[in-house]
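Go through the following before class.
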Amino acid sequence: MLSVCPVEDIAAPLDEVWSLLVDPGRLDLWWDAKLQHANPVGTMVSGQVIDAAPQGFFKKFHIGLAVKEVNHARHQLSLVASLPLGITDHVTILCMPLDANRCRVRFG
């Protein structure tokens, strides 16, 4: 099985990037989808269910996110994305500080 984990170095402090990632209302700033509903409302927590709509060509479809784990100490998110056509994606996002003004984000 092939596994690909994109990595990106971001020119922003770790805390700023982390606060962006765990805010469902700002999904469209880092993902090609817009929040439709989150239950419970607010910052991502384990057990939260998020409904989102893709942008662009696929905007008729629905995307569901189940938040499995939010580890604030490790800056790690574990999500299960339910995508169109029955596709399920298990996603882990990990943020690591590089220095005071930069961090690395690994998505896989």
